Every structure is written in C-alpha cells, then in structure tokens.
Amino acid sequence: MNDKLNAFLAAYSREAREIALSLRTLVLDVFPDAIEQIDPKSGIISYGFDRTNSGLVCVIAPHLKHVNLMFSRGTQISDPSKLLDGTGKYARHVKIRSEEETQNPALRGLLEKATKLDYKQ
C-alpha cells in the first residue's frame, strides 16, 4: 500500500479503513488492470480503464461507519441479489457496513459484470 493511500485512509475510522482496504483487494482481484486514482478532495478511490469519467468502472467512498462501493453504470448491471441502491440516472452503490460483507459472492458478481460493460460508448 502506498503513502498516498495511507494518508487518504488515515482520515477515517479503523472500521471504515478496513472495509475500504478489503474492497480495494476485491476490486483489484476482479479488475487487476484497473487504473487506481485517489482523490482526497472528493473522498474517493476510483478504478477505471483510463483516467476519464467515461472509463470509470467503480469508486470506493469511505464514510464514518460504512463504505460505499459505487458503480458508474450501475443501472446497466443485473442485480438479482438486490444489493444496488440509489436513484441516479446511471450510478448505483452498495453500502458496506462490515469487512465480512466484502466477501459476498454477489458483490464480486457485480464487479465482474461492471468490468464487462462497454466503456467505449
């Protein structure tokens, strides 16, 4: 883990840091070629095919007691387990309240589906 990531996560509770790091491991396991960008001003860690909004796949957004895993094209992802929440035109998120929840196979499935969408549109 790099210094920029450590500095970013230092602002959050131990619980939120652990969830964020577990999500990061999951994201990079599913999407090993992801470009990771840390944006302290926005409070997010983003992952995409490139550094543009159109190439953005997902975002880890820590909060005080939970972490949101946001999908930029969440409305295009099949979600039989009903994990996705939100009302935006495109984006959806999953609220993660414990490190154990990051091990949910349905969450991995959402990530796998998200990486297979057409981001060249």
Domains counted in the coordinates: how many?
Answer: 1
> Biggest sheet, in brief?
5 strands, antiparallel
- Number of DSSP helices? 3
CATH class: Alpha Beta
What order do the helices and strands come in, and which of them pair?
Blueprint: H1 3-9, H2 14-30, E1 35-39, E2 44-48, E3 56-62, E4 67-71, E5 92-96, H3 105-115
Word description of this protein:
A hairpin with a 4-residue loop joins strand 3 and strand 4 (67-71). Strands 1-2-3-4-5 form a five-stranded antiparallel sheet, covered by helices on one side. The chain contains three helices and five strands, in the order ααβββββα. It is an alpha+beta fold and 121 residues long. 27% of the residues are buried. The model has no long low-confidence stretch (mean pLDDT 95). Helix content is 29%, strand content 22%. The chain has one domain: Aspartate Aminotransferase, domain 1 (Alpha-Beta Complex), CATH 3.90.1150. It has helices spanning 3-9, 14-30, 105-115, and strands at 35-39, 44-48, 56-62, 67-71, 92-96.
